[in-house]
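User: Please predict the structure of the protein below. I'd like the answer in structure-token form so I can feed it into my own downstream comparison script.

Assistant: Understood. Taking the following sequence of 306 residues as input:
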Amino acid sequence: MREFSFPARKHTDIHCCKWEPQGSVRGVIQIIHGIAEYAARYDELAKVFTDHGFVVVAEDHMGHGKSISEEIPQGCLADGWETMAADSYRLTGMTREEYPETPYFLYGHSMGSFLTRTILYTYPDAGFAGVVISGTGWMPKLVLKGGRAICRVEAKKHGWNGTSATIDKLMFGSYNKGFDHPRTPVDWLTRDEAVVDRYIEDPLCGFSASVGLASEMLGGMLRNEDRKNLEKMPKDLPILFVSGDKDPVGSNGKGVRQTYEAFRQAGMQDVSCKLYPDGRHEMHNELNRDELHRDVLAFLDRVLAK
């Protein structure tokens, strides 16, 4: 893995990781990570892709991993949701300059899945070869708007860069409720206890999102569900949804299916969805992650064979 960075619009540099295969390059995969984690945490998944001829790149989102500074501490965000999406897309442009004729894929997980969905309608002419959307969801508009209203109230108490126990509970407080006798507060991530323990021990994981980041993410999710935005996506873009059917972010599959159907209703012509029995939020870190690897690689192979 090679590390590098580029300057964000203001306040901090965006830290990036790159994994390269041995031999010829079949394609590029950009991983867009979730909230309260970072790019290098995808090392195992990236190596699966490099073993099959793919270059892999990923950036630490602003306020995550090594993309932090005194002005933008851990969990904070400047300039809004679309700026975070623009940072990811800037890495796309930089990588494409190096691999101009190479098929380019996105793999967005959790918050990264919502960022990916924003990128698809914000940059409809990007020319992506295919997209994998992992651990996503769909929430009622009233819930999203209500969550933003709570954020405004909490911002008056704590500031937009402050954290709030109320916001933490709103965003993550119910995620463990579906599991009997949870061992830790983050058992909802995966059944793999070793992964859970590493997450808990990692100072770059599991931190509280600022009130501002929470508000911006809820706003981004709201705009993602707008029919007008959905209809801006390129209709022939191949998309694969993957999720555990016990993932609370996707309402145990219901929210993933809602997103899948919304994409189809918006005219997307090549959309598929795979829900994994008993899988939780991080299918790439689940006990049966080999199954996910096979399915994603099969999707990539199918797209490249067109």
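That's the full token string. The chain has a mean pLDDT of 96.
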